[in-house]
Structure formats: C-alpha cells, structure tokens
Design a protein that fits this description.
The protein is an alpha/beta fold. The protein has a single domain (2-161), classed as Rossmann fold (3-Layer(aba) Sandwich), CATH 3.40.50. It has five helices and four strands. The model has no long low-confidence stretch (mean pLDDT 90).
Length: 162
C-alpha cells in the first residue's frame, strides 16, 4: 500500500512539486506557449504531463482524481497566419489539450497568429518574411490579441464567482 502516499501527486519530488500542488487547488489555470515545429514547446509539454498525469486514472472513461475541475485556457502564439496554422496543425490543439481536458476542463483557446518574431529583423536572415509587413501586423494585431486574452481572463473570472 506504499503507492497510496503518492496517489494524486507527482512521483518526482523536486522544486516544482509544491507549485503543482498549489495549481491543483486553484480555481483557474491559463497556460501559454509559442508553437515551434508544429507543437507547443517541449517545456510546456513536460509541464502539462507533470501537472496532469498524477490525476489520470486508467479506468473505464479515464476518470479524474484531481481535487478540483478547475477552469482552463490555452494561449497559442505562432509565426504563421491563421489559414496556414489551420492547414499545418489540424490535430495539434486537441492532442495538446487532451490531458488538461480529461483531468480538469476543456481549455478555452486563444490564438495569436503571424506574430512578430524578432526585435530586429535586420539581425537575422529571414527571406520568407517582409519585416515591414510583420511590423505592421504587430502594430495592428497585437493590441487585439492582448484584448482577446484579457476578455478570456474576465470571462473565466466571472464564471468562477457565479
């Protein structure tokens, strides 16, 4: 019965363990990651696994033993247009969010497309992007993306107090 002391807790005790415990008791969680090479970063993937795996049971229906079904959201940023993202990553979001949804709740998705990748495009060889077009996209779209993220946060907060 020694396994019970770790039931619902990450089996790898390190500096992240107290944070994972606090998150599991939270009312809401917002995660954000750039998309690199067609997926969230490796660090984000590892974090999601560390956070959710202890609450995932291999029983019929894969029930969650998380202490709360906390509200979740995922923010994705990427250097491609929305149209290209939809072509390139049709299943990536569901794959990334599967464990989050199974353990907590289905994340609300927030996207920032065609992002400004470098602070100074002249320092890099980037023939596939027009730096002036990217700058205009940043000036026009970035405030809208920030507003979407803010509104999603407000929506989550309001749902928690109702």
């Amino acid at each position: 019965m020694g396994w019970r002391r770790n039931f619902g807790k990450c089996a790898y005790p390190d500096e992240l363990t107290p944070l994972l415990d606090k998150i599991s008791q939270a009312d809401g969680l917002v995660l954000a990651s750039p998309i690199y090479c067609g997926d969230v970063t490796g660090m984000m993937r590892c974090f999601i696994e560390r956070l959710t795996f202890p609450f995932f049971e291999y029983k019929q229906g894969y029930p969650s033993i998380a202490p709360k079904r906390l509200k979740t959201a995922m923010i994705y940023t990427m250097n491609v247009t929305e149209e290209l993202a939809n072509q390139m990553y049709p299943d990536m979001y569901n794959r990334t969010e599967f464990m989050i949804e199974t353990v907590f709740t289905k994340p609300e998705r927030i996207f920032a497309y065609d992002t400004y990748q470098f602070s100074d495009y002249d320092k890099y060889v980037v023939e596939t992007f027009d730096k002036n077009k990217k700058l205009k996209q940043k000036e026009d779209q970035f405030p809208k993306d920030l507003q979407k993220a803010y509104e999603a946060g407000v929506k989550m907060a309001l749902s928690l107090i109702q």
